[in-house]
Target: Glycosyltransferase family 92 protein
Amino acid sequence: MLTGEEIISKLRRRWITFYMAFRYGRWSLRRLVYGCTFFFCTTFTLYYLFFVLEMIPWNPAVDHWCQREKAPDYILQPEADEMTVVTMFLDLGVFKKGEQRFAYHSPYKYRKWMRVFGRLANRVVAYIESDDDIQFFREIRSCLPATLTKIIKVDRDNLSSFKHLPKISRIYSRPSYPKYHPNTVYPEYTCAMHAKYDVLERSASEDYFQTPYFAWLDVGLFRNLDGTDFPIFKMVPPDKFHPERIGFSQVWPQDPVRIPELIMKEKIVWVAGSMVLATQEYMLNFTRDYKLAVKELLDQGLSNSDQEVINAMYTAKMRKPHYIKIKTYLCHQGQLGLYGPDARYFCLGYVCKNAWEKRVPQPAPVIRS
Model:
């Protein structure tokens, strides 16, 4: 019968043997644990980089759909209410989009969404910064007639909105200024949102395709179509769109008595900046008013994205008598296949797409005897 001291001594020896084997053994448990930990950490990191952040060093594959199908002739003909679609791509790197832990956007993600423009039959003016992205966008549009696309190389430093970068940086660097990713954290992102109206003004002024309507279209507005088998489509103004209005998607109801400072600092949104629609004259007037409003707010030490600026513009305190009236479009959950925030932020784009689809000739029904 072992005494208590002998039992303790035996357990101590076994512990020392186990510990020495774990720490110094050639194929020790310690090395096994460390090896497994390293493997799982490496796997998670690679998964996060490639599938969450999508930090992929090559461009996504482009669907050359014209090799197996032909665009119908009617969709390539100009309409009486033809719309020039204006878009832009500036590589801002990887940035946090929203307050969720893994909410990041990468250039690869935007290039994936960009592929939808390969089946958009509107006249498109694209402002792009790098030669590689210009070539990529040209490949995306290669199945459509070259006359439908104009690509303009831009330098962000020459865009008037980026002249505000130092002032915006100073505002966001104040510890007391509210931080929302990316709106009030990345000054370059804010400048890029304002730059939409720089290129809209330029496009409406130059009128490259001689169309009555102009529309800004975010690269990611039709992101839900990417990777699906959707047909070639077009966008036209909604039915009964007033030519003296400017169209937006409505995100939330507007409260015109709110003060601009509250809107800018609390990220209060009325309309979405994903799509802007107007005739040439009214687009020119709106973009000029917008740029003056940005300067007015910056002089007050206030900055945020274009959505907050537009909300502030149309408050009782900032609104000018000559401002163009805004026509908002609100989609309900499930309408036009939109759910969640997409129903609010992307509504106008899908309404314009649906307005065209209602004009598309439908095949005659098959009558069975």
